[in-house]
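Support request, priority: normal
Reporter: lab tech (M.K.)
Component: structure prediction queue

Hi team, I submitted a job for asparagine synthase (glutamine-hydrolyzing) from Mucilaginibacter celer yesterday, and the status page still shows it as pending. I've pasted the exact input below so you can check whether something in the sequence is tripping the parser. The sequence length should be 595 residues. Please let me know if I need to resubmit or if it's stuck on your end.
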Amino acid sequence: MCRIAGIVSGRVPSGEIRIKVKSMCGAQQHGGPDDEGVFYDETAGLAFGHRRLSIIDLSRNGHQPMVDAGQKAWISFNGEIYNYPELKAELIKLGAQFKSGTDTEVILQAYLYWGTAAFSKFRGMFAFALYDVAKAVTYLVRDTAGIKPLYYSTTNQTLSFASEVRAFKAAGLGDENDQDWQIRLLAFGHIPEPYTTLKNVFSLPKGHFLLWEHASARYTISSYQTADTVTQITDITEARQLIAGTLKAGVKRQLIADAPIGVFLSGGIDSSLITLLANQYKKEQLKTISIFFDEKSYDERGYQQIINNKISGQNFSHLVTQSDFEVFFPQIIAAMDLPTTDGINSWFISKYAHDDGLKAVLSGIGADELFGGYPSFNRIKYLGYLRKLPSKVFSAFSSFAPDHYKKLSFLSVDHPVADYLALRGLFSRGDIAAILDTDTRHINDVLFASPGTGAPRSYNEEQASWFETNLYMQNQLLRDTDVMSMNHGLEARVPFLDEDFTNAAHRIAPAIRFNAGQPKKLLIDSFSSLIPPEIWNRPKMGFTFPLQKWMREHEQISNVNMYKGKKAQNIIQQFKTNTLHWSKAFALYQVQNHG
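Reply from support: The job had stalled in the queue. We restarted it manually and it finished. Here are the results:
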């Protein structure tokens, strides 16, 4: 796990390219505290930068950017390839020679032997830049689940890329602000891909690669994923066996590390299951990191202890208080690469994991999205009923409906994103317009500019799963977990998003995969002998903090006088009386104080 950056240009003066890439690396130092490297090819007008967090092969052999023995290709790589031992063995049979024990070198050799077909062979989380010297082309490649971020800009016949948006600002590249981020944040609670806070900086789509031709300064973006025709599984016993087998295999290979590794243990179903499975392979070496609160309604120590009593390793448990939130709040804001209403919990748990000596952790992200763990899976059918009404019925909702129902006004727009925002949106179009002093036409242009998202419009569990995976998890959970963990020099791994496991889950017929009466029933039943009933038969809480109380008591967030405009002040006044969710106040705080 690392941070990468680079520039390919025939227009930027040769002396500047290296300086700018050094600046980009410096802005991302927190994500790669162990080593720095810059490769510069003056003839090609290219510089690759790298900040290293050493997890596999801790020796100097893992230094990046890395080149193969024949100096045919260079790479700057962020992530982990979990199946690299198998790929390495296959490549050795083909004649490949290796000089290190790294997964990075496996990527290089895989490309040299298989070309772009190699990309679909990788199982892991990754974002890398690869320079083919003979062909004079550079590839940017991102993993199929979008776990690792990769941002790029193609202005002025120059390709620049980095793991964080802040790197572009540090180097003065593509740094024209895009104020439409405020609309997106107030609507989604995050900034959805491919957009950022900069006009000319975008996120590379997951499962895709960008090919940049040096001579022409032209590029294409293509998917490298292969569409397999598979038979749908309708037998419940077969489905359970498949889920159990592939998740066990995924957890086992994601425990590969030459540095200390542990698990985030909240006490919920997902983190408990990952912990119990990891314990089967790591035993006494496994460390779990947990958080608890003085606020009893958020305290999960009892559930955490049930799991800790069943494992052999060591647990580190940390109390987080209102005072801690106040003290660290400026650092949390500074850690955010992009504005978001999430990430505070990830910042704290990552801080403590780092303080407890860990370099990598397993996280339970992904199970809710795959197996129907959110209320949206039941609610979406009602959205289908509402969609049968004339759209003009919903036009007045933004002005006259109670706050909880205002977001139904999005249904006046016939667009898949409007469906999502009706389910999970933050502010309504009318409220956004009033806050930003603009009109709803502009808001529509920003939110619904693209013709579609690729989401099914079936108003069933499959559509809910698509929304939760590709919009909520992708843009909020994964991004915030990555940026907050890497802020502390910590790698967060997500076994539920292992390619083989997710492929297996998608093979299972929806009637079996989802259960309206019990969320994640298939997952629970697949491990019925492992998960204690006290864990799965409990109210869903999620990894949540007492932020409603803490933000109301925060001097700046709850100070009405810090906000500009009558609408914004009214919103904060509502928040102070506890009639508005903290996420809305937090989004408004960022728009008005950090824009």
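The mean pLDDT is 92. DSSP finds 24 helices and 17 strands in the chain. Let us know if anything else looks off. Ticket resolved.
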